[in-house]
Amino acid sequence: MTDDSSDDAAKTPPTGKGPAQSQAMWGGRFSEKPAELMQAINVSIGFDRRLAMQDLAGSRAHAAMLRKAGVISSQDEAAIQEGLRQVEAEVAAGTFPYREEFEDIHMNVEARLGELIGPAAGRLHTARSRNDQVALDFRMWVRDACDRTVEQLKALQRALLAKAEAHAATLMPGFTHLQPAQPVTFGHHLMAYVEMFGRDGGRFADARARMNESPLGAAALAGSPFPIDRHQTAEALGFARPTANSLDSVADRDFALEALGAGTICAIHLSRLAEEIVIWMTPQFGFVRLSDAFTTGSSIMPQKRNPDAAELVRAKAGRLLGAFSQLAVVMKGLPLTYAKDMQEDKQPAFEAFDALELSLKAMAGVVADLEPDTERMAAAAGAGFSTATDLADWLVREQGVAFREAHHITGAAVKRAEALGCDLATLPLSELQALHPGLTEKVYAVLTPEASVASRRSYGGTAPDQVRAQIERWKEILR
Ligand code: ARG
Predict the structure, then answer these.
(1) Which of 100, 134, 221, 350 maximizes ligand 1 atoms within 8 Å of its Cβ, making it the mutation to test the pocket?
(2) What is the pLDDT of residue 449?
(3) What pLDDT is recorded for position 303?
(4) Candidate of 44, 129, 130 to mutate for ligand 1, largest count of ligand atoms within 8 Å of Cβ
């Protein structure tokens, strides 16, 4: 019996209240410390420490503005700036003491500042709240992340561009339904991804432009009674302007959602390229080879060479979409303005951008590493009656046959070739003429994959000259 009860006691989670003593920063009206469980669910320093540099930049701009507005003295501002510089040095050196007792990054920085410079530190939080502070810090972090991603996307595009240039005329089958459709060039195929990643970069740039308004000075939610200059702090922190509604400033996280949306679309693009590389790497396709640098072996099957990097990039799309839906659900239905739910906005963004950065860099490495087996690709490009459309187009062009009828005749030719076990290019002329008397020797010139590809000169088509023109255009854009 006594054993049972002591067992129960051991299972009970620690709900004990601390000694009668108030929390340093906000505990004025409190007479007891929070329960340990309250503390456990409340602390965010474990993850929001990643906002340290943004927090310091925001505080420096805020202090300078307070001094210029006459809210704090020059001496206090000088002391605060010097203290913030010391804190920044500690953060950079990895010696800053992140402490759970101070809950989050904002109060950790302020507490440390107090230890370094004394009472002047207490003036920094004038005309500011953690609500506008966190909105500012997080916005600046997401803005930086968007900028980094744009650069990482460009690096990947450059890797694709270099491969595409080397293989602007390298034949490969183009697919629809993953069935051989029409011959294309490997360079053209790679350039399709250059376009996609270009639009991804555009989405991050658009999101950045929209988020580039400073929420600092919205204070808790209603604005400030002090003569603050929000334009000054906005400019100092690289924003185009201050936000125009104080409630909106502390209440929304759409900037992060938008960035995660762009990140999700980008990760989906990456997953498609990754999937194609996985398929091309199979011995059945045998289109490309990756070196030891971007493949792994099997611990049991010595013959294996696995495209793990591509597979992991393929999988990361789940993290991005997961992060987007995580934050979307946090924000859904939240009444204005700030609610502590929003503390849960940061981890999805941190994790998503970490995963995206790794994926973009790994993919750039994989692309630079991959070497196509040009002979195998060319053979596959000519297989599967891939020039059937060219035969139909010839009948339209040279014999004035209606496309529908030409399609029908060509279908019959494919059927005949299949029965004879040959290709369209090797189907005897007598066989072709039995299907349409207008078919002559000349038709064979359009039935090779080289001729098929070279003929597709329409803007954005797969003819090597068109591919090279697009490569030149992108080189200019990425210069
Ligand atoms: N750690 C908080 C967050 O990330 C900072 C804002 C807290 N504001 C408040 N009123 N409790 O959201």
Answers:
(1) 134
(2) 94
(3) 82
(4) 130
Ranges under pLDDT 50 in the chain: 1-22
Q: What is the pLDDT of residue 23?
A: 64
Give me ligand 1 centre to Cα 265, in Å: 30
Distance separating alpha carbons of residues 29 and 24, to the nearest angstrom: 11
DSSP secondary structure string for all residues of 97-165: ---GGG-SHHHHHHHHHHHHHGGGGGGTTTT--HHHHHHHHHHHHHHHHHHHHHHHHHHHHHHHHHHHH
Full DSSP string of 55-76 = HHHHHHHHHHHHHHTTSS-HHH
Q: Which residues pair with 184 in a beta bridge?
A: 172
Angle between helices 130-166 and 254-281 (to 10 degrees): 30
Q: In the numeric block, which tokens belong to residue 283?
A: 């011995």
Instruction: Give the separation between CA 114 and CA 295, rounded to whole angstroms.
Output: 52
What confidence score (pLDDT) does residue 24 get?
66
Q: Which amino acid is at 162?
A: A
Distance separating the N- and C-terminal Cα atoms of the chain = 79
Residue 23 in contact with ligand 1 by CB distance below 6 A: no
Q: How far apart are CA 304 and CA 150, in angstroms?
A: 35
Alpha helices in 295-401 (DSSP H): 308-331, 346-369, 374-382, 388-399
CA dihedral (415, 417, 420, 426) in degrees, to 10, reads: 170
> 390 with 451: CB under 8 angstroms?
yes
3-class SS of residue 171: strand
> Cα dist. 329→145, 233, 344, 345, 350 in Å?
22, 32, 10, 10, 17
pLDDT of amino acid 13 = 41
Give the type of residue at 311. Answer: E
What's this model's pTM, rounded to 2 decimal places? Answer: 0.91
